[in-house]
Automatic annotation (TrEMBL):
InterPro entries in the cross-refs: AAA+_ATPase, ABC1_TM_dom, ABC1_TM_sf, ABC_transporter-like_ATP-bd, ABC_transporter-like_CS, P-loop_NTPase, Type_1_exporter
Principal localisation: membrane
Start-end of Polar residues biased regions: 657-667
Name assigned to this protein: ATP-binding cassette domain-containing protein
Organism: Streptomyces monticola
Keywords of this entry: ATP-binding, Membrane, Nucleotide-binding, Transmembrane, Transmembrane helix
Gene Ontology MF annotations: ATP binding
Domain ABC transmembrane type-1: 47-333
Domain ABC transporter stretches: 367-609
Region annotated Disordered, chain positions: 617-667
Subcellular location: Cell membrane
């Protein structure tokens, strides 16, 4: 299993970066942090910038004031006179320090205020984009990978704010120290740089080693986390206990952790060595610096006061330069992830569900597929639908039938606007669905998908989420529960509709598959789309519940709703007005159930197959395949236990498809 943190892409980008490139890219990175901060909270962004600029100026003034204090103290005269002379400069130092402390407090406050807002803004933008793209984008592996990596972008954007602040501060402080040093003596500036180079080298070396290791160990870390989550996951819990998988997983966890620890120890050893080398070099550079200062003093090229100020300036300057290198380094790391976020924005715009378009007819008479071909993305994918032409008359029950993988679900997803056909058209009367406004199209559709979402919310929300934009209405909720036959499910819940349906939360409750399915149908009923798509609505229902659900579905069609039904239970299909049979992505038969039964094609074959299963399984029946005397058709035999006779399909003599007591065509 791959773990896409995005490090795989970033590692090289980071490792190829040297100090010069980093410095060159710095203004762009600072600008991007500033843009985010500006978007999130302008006032706070202004405070941070003003405070950091002020702190830099304060540092320069402070150094000059210190220089003045030292100069006063080291002049000729009595100590009292010298001290008195130094008082104004000392007062300046104190005032500047006070101002700097206030500015620092202001910057800390504003940065703290900005950080969560920046993360929220970036996360919202990420989620908004992710929710607004086509389903095909979510299923596209490259886009999904970008979604995975970009999710780190928001946290990185947050971190970049504080880092950018420190970079700005260190740059200004460094400029102040460098300026003062240059004024004091031109030779001091190169000395400052020399003193800082070893630790800058060490910081970069250690960081690169860390990333190389991260890249090499990323799958390992992912697998370790996966194992620990498996041990606590609800769905794995029964098997862990019954099959005794716990110790096995724990053993793996330990051995994986131990090898990760060994890698950490290796990195720590190398970091210690690099740090020691850097410290030695810094020591040498410091010795050279102080020797130079001593030489300048001996030669009389520099006064003692200036040398004292120089020492202070070199110390603050080198600490600023060190901070700068480390922070710029970190800024770049985080910028890689923010870059992903920005790439996601661009890609998401390409994949966005289009807005605008023509109106669909208010009451279309039919939806027509005309030579529709659709393939899922992928190199070797054969078309899931090939040149399918069929009609879906509105206000009727239309069943889609076919073996697994024949394209039924794909067809309804195309109808619902989740995918667009690569060839052919889907007509709503004379309007091409491709030109229609998407939201107008989806507004008409209610869908109980095979894998409909079991939202970890209350039962009430699980139903009302069918129309999340509308005010929640109790009357509509009750009606939907009744329509779906979910009354018993709801009344069996400890807190009725207000029961939380998420076992892993306190007070949470879990439903059985069949109970969930009824809530799913209630959700679709709550939505009240003119076209109801039900994909295997009864897969998890018992025989009695199944009958009930089909009764409800028939009633919906009676009220003018179009019902598109996908089911493998052909006994239920006999109530449909029209059946389309798909095979390997092609439409092979269409007609009323009885026409199809009489035609002796794929439908009749599947039907007979199912009917014979009932007959074979029923007590007192003959062995499979054996003729039972007097049996005209399997479906006409006494039903298997729990299946009412009227629901048994009969080969050759189709049951009377009728809705609401009215015979339908073909009956
Ligand atoms: N999201 C997807 N990405 C790629 N291929 C898919 C996807 N969904 C379905 N397919 C492929 O498309 C073909 C048709 O699948 P579809 O789900 O439409 O069949 P179905 O008739 O609804 O099957 P079932 O009765 O098992 O639900 C299958 O070959 C399947 O592997």
């Amino acid at each position: 299993m791959r773990y896409d943190t995005g490090w795989a892409q970033h590692e090289e980008a980071f490792l190829q970066m040297n100090l010069r490139v980093m410095v060159k890219r710095l203004p762009a990175l600072l600008a991007s942090s500033f843009r985010l901060a500006w978007q999130a909270d302008r006032a706070a962004a202004r405070i941070v910038i003003a405070a950091e600029l002020g702190r830099g100026v304060a540092q320069a003034v402070n150094l000059l004031a210190v220089n003045s204090v030292l100069a006063r103290l080291m002049t000729q005269g009595s100590m009292e006179a010298r001290l008195r002379g130094a008082v104004p400069a000392l007062v300046t130092v104190a005032c500047v320090m006070l101002v700097a402390a206030l500015l620092r407090a202001a910057s800390t406050y504003a940065t703290g205020r900005l950080e969560p807002k920046v993360e929220r803004v970036a996360t919202e933008q990420y989620l908004e984009r992710a929710a607004a793209v086509e389903l095909a984008a979510i299923e596209d592996d490259a886009f999904h990978k970008l979604l995975d990596t970009a999710q780190y972008g928001a946290a990185s954007a947050r971190r970049m704010i504080a880092i950018a602040t420190r970079v700005v501060n260190a740059t200004i402080s460094l400029a102040a120290a460098a300026g003062v040093l240059t004024v004091l003596h031109p030779v001091l500036l190169p000395l400052l740089v020399t003193m800082t180079l070893p630790s800058a080298w060490a910081a970069l070396t250690i960081a690169r080693r860390r990333y190389r290791s991260f890249h090499a160990w990323v799958q390992h870390a992912r697998a370790g986390r996966l194992i620990s989550s498996l041990l606590t996951e609800t769905r794995a819990a029964p098997e862990i206990r019954v099959h005794g998988v716990g110790p096995f997983l724990l053993r793996h966890f330990r051995s994986m952790s131990e090898s990760a620890e060994a890698e950490q120890a290796r990195l720590a050893r190398l970091a210690a060595r690099t740090g020691l080398i850097a410290a030695s070099l810094t020591g040498l550079a410091a010795t050279a610096t102080y020797a130079t200062l001593g030489g300048l003093l001996l030669l009389g090229a520099m006064s003692l006061a200036v040398a004292g100020t120089a020492v202070i300036a070199i110390r603050t300057g080198s600490s600023n330069l060190n901070t700068l290198v480390l922070e710029v380094n970190e800024l770049h790391e985080n910028a890689l992830f923010v870059g992903d976020l920005e790439r996601l924005y661009v890609k998401a715009a390409d994949w966005a569900v289009p807005s605008g378009g023509s109106e669909l007819p208010a009451e279309p008479r039919e939806i027509r597929f005309e030579k529709v071909t659709f393939s899922y993305p992928g190199r070797d994918a054969r078309p899931a639908l090939s040149e399918v032409s069929l009609s879906i008359p509105t206000g009727k029950i239309v069943a889609l039938v076919g073996e697994n993988g024949s394209g039924k679900t794909t067809l309804v997803k195309l109808l619902a606007g989740l995918y667009s056909p690569q060839q052919g058209r889907i007509w709503w009367d004379d309007v091409d669905a491709a030109d229609a406004e998407r939201t107008r199209l989806t507004e008409r559709i209610a869908m109980v998908a095979q894998d409909f979402k079991r939202w970890p919310f209350t039962a009430r929300v699980n139903i009302a989420i069918g129309r999340p934009g509308a005010e929640m209405s109790d009357g509509r909720l009750d009606a939907s529960v009744a329509e779906a036959g979910a009354g018993d499910v709801v009344s069996g819940l400890p807190r009725g509709l207000d029961t939380l349906l998420a076992r892993s939360f306190s007070g949470g409750h879990e439903l059985s598959g069949g109970q969930w399915q009824r809530l799913g149908i209630a959700r679709a009923a709550y939505r009240k789309g003119r076209i109801l798509i039900v994909d295997e609505p009864t897969a998890a229902l018992d025989a009695r519940a199944e009958l009930e659900v089909f009764e409800k579905i028939r009633a919906l069609a009676g009220s003018g709703q179009t019902v598109i039904l996908i089911t493998h239970r052909l006994a239920s299909v006999r109530h449909a007005d029209l059946v389309h049979v798909l095979d390997a992505g092609r439409l092979v038969e269409s007609g009323t159930p009885e026409e199809l039964l009489n035609s002796g094609g794929v439908y009749a074959e599947l039907y007979a197959l199912q009917a014979s299963q009932f007959a074979e399984g029923a007590p007192g029946r003959g062995a499979p395949g054996r003729e039972v005397p007097g049996r005209e058709a399997p479906g006409r035999e006494a039903p298997a236990k729990g299946v009412p006779a009227k629901e048994m399909p009969a080969k050759g003599v189709p049951a009377q498809p009728s809705r609401n007591g009215h015979p339908t065509k073909g009956s």
